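=== RUN LOG ===
request id: a7f3
mode: sequence -> structure
chains: 1
length: 149
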Amino acid sequence: MSRNKRTIVILIADDDAEDRMLVKDALEENRLTNEIQFVENGEELVDYLHNRGRFTDKTQYPTPGLILLDLNMPKKDGREALKEIKADEHLRVIPVVVLTTSKAEEDILRTYDLGVSSFITKPVTFAALVDVMKTLTKYWFEIVELPKA
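=== RESULT ===
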């Protein structure tokens, strides 16, 4: 099986149900066949990555090849979750793309400092989101060489 043919799971961490659906729809609009998993806060994200709690089934909740991370979430925000992910030797290789409404310079600097792969401000329109997802998925799944999960 060639490494480009394996299914890369996209894990989307976002507390806003409407945003989750918009991102999913934008990915589907681009005919992306990747499996998409969702978590609603930073605690769920970290539990998912460690297969804890309701995420213990590794076949149902496989290690993602890419994490799309919102910064402003309840319980544990994206910044805290990112810090934990990048501090873990097994998880730090997973590319994390921040997809957030924040345009704060301090968020941009801090997340790059913590090891985020890219920082994207959520587009306002669905058409713009479809374009962003098209570029993002082309880059991460066709151009970049990702480590084997």
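=== NOTES ===
The two ends are 14 Å apart (CA to CA).
The chain has five helices and five strands.
=== END ===
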